[in-house]
Amino acid sequence: MKITIVGAGYVGLVTAGCLAELGNQVMCVDNDAKKISLLNAAQLPIYEPGLQELMSRNRAAGRIQFTTGMADGVEHGEVIFIAVGTPSQEDGSADLQYVLAVARQIGRNIKSFKVVVNKSTVPVGTAYRVQAAIATELSKRGISEPLFEVISNPEFLKEGAAIEDFMHPDRIVIGVDQGNNYAATHQLIEQLYSSFNRHHARTIWMDVRSAELTKYAANAMLATRISFMNEIANLSDLLGADIDCVRRGIGADKRIGHDFLYAGTGYGGSCFPKDTRALIQTALDCGSQLKVVSAVEQVNDLQKKIMVDRILDYFGNDLTGLKFGVWGLAFKPNTDDMREAPSLVIIQALLLLGAQVCAFDPLAGNEALDALSCELIDSPEALANFELADCASEAIEDADALLLVTEWKTFHHPDFALIKSLLKRPLILDGRNLYDPKMLEEMGIAYQGFGRRNSLALSFSNTKNTPQDMLETT
């Protein structure tokens, strides 16, 4: 089948590569000439495990091509995926200018029947706006014939595991409304995804509005689990409980399960923050309030700041002359994505409080530096105290504490004896609860996680509150 993907970003490239891998002829269109030149030079503008190999293999087989020519893309594809960005606006709603711009271009160039697929994460009702934009352009050309159908096919890809998610999906959500083109549309999409339904049906058919809402609802539910566990972790600190025990205890309930129950510095990335805000704003536009989802977002915003609060508990409010080694910058492992990364909140706060920060990330160092430069554009003197290390050990040399922010596998089993020898004082603040508090205590290393710590951590603290002390003051 001939497929066109409009948008050579994260979702677009993964979708293009995977559909080409299934034997389709894929044309990927983007208006960024530099990005297309990069792709035509066999390089990628993003990092995703396995994507480079996937692209190289299908380029060599002649199944994928890249262009800036929208007219060529519309002519090529029987199915046209819209996979452009929908960034948050100031009120939290999704900015649809790029989606609608693509729709208008489709309308200006369409000559035969096409199925137009909204792959971008968009608010409920966007398919109708895309349909209206295409129809308006057709009308300008004097064409009233129904040459297209707009459907919703939201993506459920995890950064760092996107190819696996695409090729082995839990479900494929298709939103299409009954109409004149329903039979032709259903047949094309069924054919496109037939490889995934050979052993059992993974495709879930529904109306367009339900499909659009399904994407936001799924991300809001997962974000809710994260924020819920972060609140329980913070309560565990006050009560002297261990959140890892709590996690295993509630995760064993088959109604709950173990996924997304890990406490830490909060969620980030391109999906959860943006999608929860958009869902909240969608409800407000309807005269309603999503109180649970609003609370999820508020908890997450606060969670990103808790590590800084703990540092102030340990070192006081003036961090001048102190150095902190940071392990992990990307919002999650196996990506260089810095969007909404908790590390940005933590490092920015430390720098503005006078600290020096040396950080190491296997992939996202340069992206983090660019992001911090934007955040601290008015405080160049603070940014001067930030440096990138070439390796994990370099980041913590002569540091006053190690801050673990992103749980890359390379950080899972470090040499703790080496860590202790490199740090000025043996203190680890673990933002992902990777390490064993008791084992570190036996090694003489103070450990503070989220809902987990050892007794040595209290001896480092200025407040030196015991769990009982904390209870008596609440």
Describe the structure.
The structure is a single chain. The protein has helices at 10-21, 33-40, 51-60, 70-76, 97-109, 126-140, 162-167, 182-192, 208-239, 243-251, 272-285, 291-315, 342-352, 365-375, 380-383, 392-396, 416-422, 437-442, 455-460, 467-472, and strands spanning 2-6, 25-29, 64-67, 79-82, 114-118, 148-152, 172-175, 203-206, 323-327, 356-360, 386-388, 401-404, 427-430, 446-448. It contains 20 helices and 14 strands. The protein folds into two domains: 2-206, Rossmann fold (3-Layer(aba) Sandwich); 222-472, NAD(P)-binding Rossmann-like Domain (Rossmann fold), CATH 3.40.50.720. The strands form three sheets. It has a six-stranded parallel β-sheet, with helices on both faces. It has a six-stranded parallel β-sheet with strand order 11-10-9-12-13-14. The chain has a two-stranded parallel sheet with strand order 7-8. The termini are far apart. By secondary structure, it is of the alpha/beta class.
